[in-house]
Design brief:
The complex is a heterodimer of chains A (207) and B (555). In chain A, 48% of the residues lie in helices and 0% in strands. Chain A has 207 residues and is mainly alpha-helical. The N and C termini of chain A lie far apart (63 Å). In chain A, 47% of the residues are buried. With 555 residues, chain B is of the alpha/beta class. Chain B is 23% helix and 22% strand. Chain B has 11 helices and 30 strands. In chain B, the strands form 10 sheets. In chain B, strands 1, 2, 16, 17, 18, 19 and 30 form a 7-stranded mixed β-sheet that branches. Chain B has a 6-stranded antiparallel β-sheet with strand order 10-21-22-24-20-27. Chain B has a 3-stranded mixed β-sheet with strand order 7-8-29, with no helix packed on it. In chain B, helix 3 (151-165) crosses helix 11 (534-554). Chain B starts with a strand and ends with a helix. Classes of the chains: A mainly alpha (207), B alpha/beta (555). Chains A and B meet through helix 3, helix 4, helix 5, helix 6 and helix 7 of A and helix 2, helix 4, strand 10 and helix 8 of B.
Chain lengths: 207, 555
């Protein structure tokens, strides 16, 4: 099963579990208090699930700390531990026109990915390919003449997707980070934890 | 006829507009970017709602859609968001022909690439709010000789700007985790370092919860910075005190300022008394003209020379502009690298995207190498924007290698570190047949070249710091493989000099041969500044605009 399908399945199962009243059980196996303290949002579309998964892959937190109550994908060194999950998630975002990677390059690149998928007989659509085929498809496209653009567009797409959750609608949806919440706690290490270098100036300016 | 037209609204234009309007002059600002505002619930285009079409955000030309409300002059407002659509955010790229009218512009040459902010407020919409005075040695560089700019001469103007921007010296306990990790490594390496001097954002504390915002002296809110790390894409919380909240606010409140956004100045022609500016509306494509007794070009180090090059070479309306126009462009020695600290303790992770973008500055190598080192924050997954790999990798930048690196280390163990310094200022802005700017570097970046040696020295310093902290410097493709500089602080192109034979404007910012036509922005710098340049640009604008005000009053 592809990591993406695995993810979807696990997420759906998790959501079903929450709805079925097993949220407490989910909390019990979580090693720490979830970052947001909110329940895993209702899953009502695969795009939404992808965002959730993407957040889980990159949102800061200690190892194993879940993002939401009932989150079945605790972080491990800031990435989901299942093979290919992060990649599949990134590629979802890159490929998926839902996220509006509407630049000329991106449209071309999405078409190239689609074409490469079919040439490889990995599926009718890119997202149908199973690991390691998605990586092989992307790598095949990257090796083409527009390789740098592929990498650039994909990277920017990731930024764009991550930026999405700063939209008020999304912050309302997930309750994080939000204009008045988020990083108030834990943004700095206590001074006792690290060595401060010697200073050359008194006020931060050289003469 | 206006008293003055100011083209551009960044640090040069905003300071000048505030100065002139407060002195009683009528000023028209022409800004080719949008007027951005923070998002509000109910804004259109929140297309993360499931099923909402992407076309909510951009129109059929790929241009961002405005929010629906307008400012006091009728200019449409656009919503700052980071960002559901690349076309909404990026690019004006003359090489690819892609033009979006987003928050940034990219100019990509074979050996130099710069990204600059775009919109009402200019670079302040996306800058890092690091406010450093240029050290004395900056003004001892050859380009500055013969000009009345020294550090003591500029200090009163620095003080003015710092009062307006509410600059403060941050302390060690303001430094976010990523800065602490790097500072700790610096301490282990015996490298000196300071908490950065920053603009007037308030670092949020628990006590801020639920409180109304503090107001700045100009009646605009100072929202607390919650350290979300998205600064580089435009703050949606207005925690970044951009120029619309201070200098431009002051100008607006006089009632003597008129603003046209989405208004791209295209040509300037002299009149018997004053100048006529031809501009077009980016939204409609319609052409307009306005006249003024004085014109102040403040469009930045790429667009100011671009505009004047069109006037000199394409339309020949200003044929006597200096042959130095477009030359001596500096990248301010910008160089950025990644460091991987693979063995950080579980309670001392870097969490690269938390906190303000730059938090510490090291002058350790300034005396000997004329460069500084700073930490670099990025938005979440920001590091993925830059193709990086571990030294000794197989040379590929996408695929399992980079994904493995990100999956294992990105959020916790990877940091950005970089520097800036005095480079050779060998960049050049030219225009193509359509009158659009092109940018490149005129010298080979090889050993012995000043810029090459500077960037290699910055890289060596970063490696020293990384290794002292048990980390490794990551391989950076653009510089290491492509010999292309990436910069966000372009300077020069209309350099100030003692004569027409040596530069474009005189020490008062007046274009040689054209009384009443001024350039006031980073493009007048005769070379690199070597530290974050916004404060120096604004300080020099304070000085130059004093003279412009006095000459307008006497004419």
């Amino acid at each position: 099963m592809s990591s993406r399908r695995l993810f979807l399945g696990r997420t759906l199962a998790g959501a079903a579990g929450i709805y079925a009243g097993f949220g407490v059980a989910g909390r019990a196996v979580a090693c720490e208090v979830p970052i947001t303290g909110r329940p895993w949002p209702a899953v009502d579309g695969w795009e939404h699930r992808t965002i959730m998964h993407f957040l889980n892959a990159v949102v800061p937190g200690d190892d194993g700390q879940p993002l939401f109550v009932g989150d079945t994908h605790p972080l491990a060194s800031a990435g989901d531990g299942s093979a290919g999950a992060f990649s599949a998630c990134v590629l979802d975002v890159f490929y998926d026109p839902y996220y509006g990677i509407a630049g000329t390059n991106s449209r071309l690149l999405a078409s190239l990915l689609e074409l490469a998928t079919r040439l490889k007989r990995a599926g009718r659509h890119f997202y149908e390919a199973s690991p390691p085929e998605p990586l092989e498809i992307v790598d095949a496209v990257v090796r083409g003449p527009r390789g740098k653009d592929v990498a650039r567009a994909a990277a920017l797409a990731m930024s764009a997707a991550l930026g999405a959750f700063r939209s008020p609608s999304v912050t309302r949806l997930i309750g994080w980070p939000g204009p008045t919440g988020g990083y108030y706690d834990g943004a700095r290490h206590p001074l006792s934890r690290w060595r401060q270098p010697e200073r050359l100036t008194v006020d931060g300016n050289l003469p | 006829m206006q008293d003055a037209i100011v083209i551009g609204s960044g640090f040069g234009g905003a300071v000048t507009a505030a100065k002139l309007t407060r002195a009683g002059f009528g000023v028209l600002i022409l800004e080719k970017g949008h007027r951005w505002r923070r998002p509000r619930p109910g804004d259109p285009g929140e297309n993360l709602h499931l099923g909402a079409p992407i076309t909510n955000l951009v129109d059929d030309r790929g241009f961002p859609r405005p929010a629906g409300d307008r400012d006091r002059w009728g200019n449409p407002n656009y919503v700052t968001r980071q960002s559901t659509d690349l076309e909404y955010l990026f690019f004006e790229n003359p090489y690819s022909g892609v033009r979006s009218g987003g928050l940034f512009e990219d100019y990509i040459g074979d050996r130099m690439m710069v990204t600059v902010g775009r919109g009402y407020g200019g670079g302040s919409l996306v800058y890092s709010q690091v406010h450093l005075r240029a050290p004395s040695e900056t003004f001892e560089e050859p380009g500055w000789r013969g000009l009345p700019f020294t550090r003591p001469a500029l200090d009163p103007y620095y003080e003015r700007v710092e009062r307006m921007l509410l600059t403060f010296a941050s302390q060690w306990d303001d430094v976010p985790k990523r800065g602490a990790v790097i500072a700790d490594a610096m301490a282990r390496a015996g490298v000196t370092c300071e908490p950065a001097r920053l603009g007037n954002f308030r670092i949020a504390r628990d006590s801020d919860r639920g409180r109304p915002p503090v107001m700045n002296p100009w009646g605009r809110p100072i929202e607390p910075c919650n350290g979300c790390g998205f600064c580089t894409f435009g703050c949606i919380f207005d925690a970044r005190q951009n120029l619309t909240l201070n200098y431009l606010a002051v100008a607006e409140d006089t009632g003597r300022l008129e603003v046209r956004t989405d208004a791209a100045a295209w040509n300037i022609e002299p009149l018997a008394r004053g100048y006529r500016v031809h501009w077009y509306d980016e939204r409609t494509g319609g052409w307009h003209t306005d006249r003024a007794r004085a014109v102040i070009v403040s469009a930045g180090a790429i667009n100011s020379p671009e505009l004047l090059l069109r006037a000199r070479d394409l339309y020949r309306s200003l044929p006597d502009l200096s042959p130095h126009l477009g030359r001596h462009v500096s990248g301010n020695g910008d160089a950025a690298f990644g460091v991987l600290f693979p063995d950080l303790a579980a309670d001392f992770k870097a969490e690269i995207y938390k906190g303000h973008v730059f938090s510490i500055v090291s002058y350790h190598w300034w005396r000997t190498g004329r460069f500084i080192i700073e930490d670099t924050g990025t938005a979440p997954v920001g590091a993925a924007k830059y193709p990086v790999r571990r030294e000794g990798g197989d040379g590929r930048y996408w695929g399992p290698q980079i994904k493995g690196l990100l999956r294992s280390h990105y959020a916790t163990d990877m940091v950005g570190i970089g520097g800036m310094g005095i480079d050779g200022a060998d960049g050049r802005v030219t225009i193509d047949a359509a009158g659009k700017a092109r940018l490149d570097w005129t010298k080979a970046l090889v050993p012995g070249d000043r810029t090459f040696e500077l960037i290699e020295a910055i890289r060596s310093a970063c490696r020293t710091i990384a290794e002292a902290g048990g980390g490794e410097l990551l391989h950076e493709q653009e510089w290491s493989d492509n010999r292309r500089m990436l910069g966000v602080h372009p300077l020069g192109g209309c350099r100030m000099a003692a004569s027409h034979a040596a530069g474009v404007v005189d020490a008062a910012g007046n274009v040689f041969g054209y009384p009443g036509l001024y350039v006031v922005d980073g493009s007048v710098m005769p070379g690199a500044i070597g530290v974050n340049p916004s404060l120096t640009i604004a300080a020099i604008a304070e000085k130059l605009s004093d003279g412009i005000r006095d000459r307008l009053a006497s004419s």
